[in-house]
């Protein structure tokens, strides 16, 4: 039955019965719009009618059964351990229609994808690694709290009011926690989902490449690797190879932060000499 439902998303959606705009949950939280349906939950933008505050409401999907409820509870537990202005705070939990719901802060802003494709912003090597350093400052706090995010993709890194925020802790877990990974899973999935800081660095390696490609102008139609296409300093190239686990990877966020700071200082010095 589960496989049948997974192969037929329209049937799954009918069974999951997402909330409609305007519905009030728990006598307090009004649904404004659906933000998206993930593997185990449905996210909504909502409003706390008691305070007028905008919130995100997550509902465990009925079709995922106990797994969906367990993962929503894990996300709630993770957010309870984190207290940081650049991370959404856990707000409330409740049961509605037999399904658990999690309420957290709504963080509005732009992704780098919005900036690049919507505003035409491009990132030089220096600008890309400066932004990475801002993200790593938040990641350091997450890791120091014993948590690995495991989903540091472009949609989950938000730029607002001159600072970055990290959202969507739906896949986050405690370091070393047993997770649903198998030996026959694709390598990409295993690298991104490992319950170790390396998985966050791997994801941020791809995030940084996305920034760097914003300034790339192809000179031929031949398909090449990022190392061939991007004009990077040797240190930036070496750091990305470690983040992407092509070479011996970083094991601790402080190692990566130290290398990023050194790269930025060396680039600043080189620029000063040119001037």
UniProtKB/TrEMBL annotation:
GO molecular function, one term: protein serine/threonine kinase activity
UniProt xrefs under InterPro entries: Kinase-like_dom_sf, NEK_Ser/Thr_kinase, Prot_kinase_dom, Protein_kinase_ATP_BS, Tyr_kinase_cat_dom
Residue ranges that the Swiss-Prot or TrEMBL entry lists as coiled coil: none
KW Kinase (keyword) present: yes
Keywords: ATP-binding, Kinase, Nucleotide-binding, Transferase
Domain Protein kinase: start-end pairs: 29-275
CDD domains associated with the record: STKc_PknB_like
Binding site for ATP: 58
E.C. number(s) listed in UniProt: 2.7.11.1
Family annotation (SMART domains): TyrKc
SUPFAM superfamilies the record matches: Protein kinase-like (PK-like)
Pfam families membership: Pkinase
Group of enzyme by EC: transferase
UniProt key word Nucleotide-binding: yes
Stated family: Belongs to the protein kinase superfamily. NEK Ser/Thr protein kinase family. NIMA subfamily.
Name the record gives this protein: non-specific serine/threonine protein kinase
Organism: Geobacillus thermodenitrificans
Lineage start: Bacteria, Bacillati, Bacillota, Bacilli, Bacillales
């Amino acid at each position: 039955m589960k496989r049948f439902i997974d192969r037929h998303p329209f049937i799954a959606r009918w069974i999951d019965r997402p909330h409609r705009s305007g519905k009030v949950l728990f006598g307090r939280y009004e649904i404004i719009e659906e933000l998206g349906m993930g593997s185990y939950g449905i996210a909504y933008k909502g409003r706390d009618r008691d305070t007028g505050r905008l919130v995100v409401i997550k509902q465990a999907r009925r079709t995922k059964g106990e797994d969906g409820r367990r993962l929503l509870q894990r996300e709630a537990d993770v957010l309870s351990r984190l207290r940081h202005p650049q991370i959404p705070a856990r707000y409330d939990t409740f049961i509605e229609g037999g399904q658990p719901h999690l309420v957290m802060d709504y963080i509005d802003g732009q992704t780098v994808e919005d900036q690049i494709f919507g505003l035409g912003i491009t990132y030089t090597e220096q600008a890309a690694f400066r932004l990475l350093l801002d993200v790593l400052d938040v990641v350091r706090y997450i890791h120091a709290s014993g948590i690995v995010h495991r989903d540091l993709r472009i949609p989950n890194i938000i730029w607002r009011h001159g600072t970055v925020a990290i959202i969507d802790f739906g896949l986050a877990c405690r370091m070393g926690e047993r997770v649903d990974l198998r030996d026959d899973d694709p390598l990409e999935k295993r690298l991104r989902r490992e319950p170790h800081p390396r998985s966050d660095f791997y994801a941020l390696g791809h995030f940084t490449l996305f920034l760097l490609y914003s300034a790339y102008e192809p000179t031929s139609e031949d398909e090449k690797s990022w190392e061939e296409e991007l004009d990077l300093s040797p240190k930036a190239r070496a750091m990305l190879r470690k983040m992407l686990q092509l070479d011996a990877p970083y094991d601790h966020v402080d190692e990566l932060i130290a290398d990023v700071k050194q790269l930025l200082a060396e680039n600043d010095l080189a620029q000063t000499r040119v001037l």
